[in-house]
Structures are given as C-alpha cells and as structure tokens.
Amino acid sequence: MDELLEIIAEMTARIPTDTLMHLADEIQRIDDVSELYTIQFNPNLRSLCNRFLDACESSNCSTAVIASTLRGACSVASVLNQRTAVNLVWTGPQTEYISIRHTESVLTEMINSARNQLFMVSFVAYRAPAILGALHNALDRGVRVRMLLESSKNQGGRQVDYDSLGFMKLALPGIELFQWMQKNAKGVVHAKCAVTDAERLFVTSANISEAAMEHNIEAGVLITGGDAPKQMMRHLQALIDTRVIVPFET
To answer: DSSP letter string over 147-190?
Structure first.
C-alpha cells in the first residue's frame, strides 16, 4: 500500500487534477483490479501509469479503495495549491526529497481553469498536443485566448525558421496571435509565461513544445493571487495598446 500511495502522490504532481478524478471514476466502475490494464492512458505518461497499475495489483486493494484514495489525494492537492501563493514547477529528473509540480500539468490546469481570459508568451510553439487540446477546449468555452510568439525569419524574426505563428493560427483559428515588431530587430521574444484571469501567473523556462513538456530540464514558478498576475496582464495589454506588439496577420 505504501508504494501505491507514493505513486499516487507523484501522479498528483504530474497529472492535472481533473484528469485524475476522471481516472478515479473509471476505476470505480471496474470490478476486478486485473481489469485496470484495459484503461487507456496518456502515452507520454505510460511509464508512470504502468507503475501505478502494478502497485494497484500488488496492494491487494479493491478498485473502490483505489478510486477513493486517488480522489482523496486530488482533494488534498487542490486545497494545498489554492492556499499556497507560490509553487515550484519542474520538468526533468525527480528526486526523493521533494514533490514538485510538473510543467505540462500546471500549464494544462491553468488553461482548463480559465474563465474569461488567458494570455501566453513563448519563444516557439509546436508539437504539444495536451496544451493544444486544452487551448481548443478553452476557446470552445468562450475564453479569450491571446498569445505572443517569436516571428520566424520569413516574418522579420532573427533566429527561428519555424513558423510558430502560422502553426498556431492553423491549429486554433479562434486564437488571437501577436508578434513583436522592431524597426531594427536585435532582440527576440524569449519570455515564457502564462496569466489566467489576472489571478494566476506561471513564469517558466519552458517553451510550448513536446521537448519542453517531456524531455528537457525546465524550471518555473506558479504564482496564485497577489499583484503579480494583475501586473503581468496589465503590462501585456499595455504592449498591445502602444503597438509594441501587434496582431499577427496571415
């Protein structure tokens, strides 16, 4: 049972709470632990989920107990996240000394929780299916989604051949995209952050990419409440109002 509890704790750090609650519902409907292997998991989390399934089988717990334990862990994680002003966020090797929230989990959770508006900034954006899926759902909910990305060389940028702006416009037609227009281009959009409803701010080293979400070592902080999220939203809006950043035109 101890091994199962440790793995569930790791899962709450790496997987969005709503996803885990849905998993608990699926487990609740299964009569025998051996049938858990029929559940479809995110391929990017296959190793962790396989460990979870093995621990479930060796724990000799019923599916009802496993589902309840998973729900309890999600509830505790939600309460702690709401009460903590600043959380460390990490992608890369884990250690036994501290449980750190995972970059993709935090970013997906922020997008899923957006009620009115979301603004994201990244150097590049490509091959991040979980993030794109969450953004698509946010747009369907009527959330205003805006994003600032680095321009490709063909669009006046300095360093990037890949057209992140064109890719995001094609993938998410409802998104509002912005680019930094410089008279004498010497800098790049190197910031990576996301702000939701002027209430939560995530500052990270991670781009919106598969490599950043799954393979690299990336670090960031999630700030809930206080002035920082409001300041960032006001700053980004001011950059638009003063036309330092302008809408991307295809």
So the answer is: EEEPPBGGGT-SSB-S-HHHHHHHH-TT-EEEEE--TT------
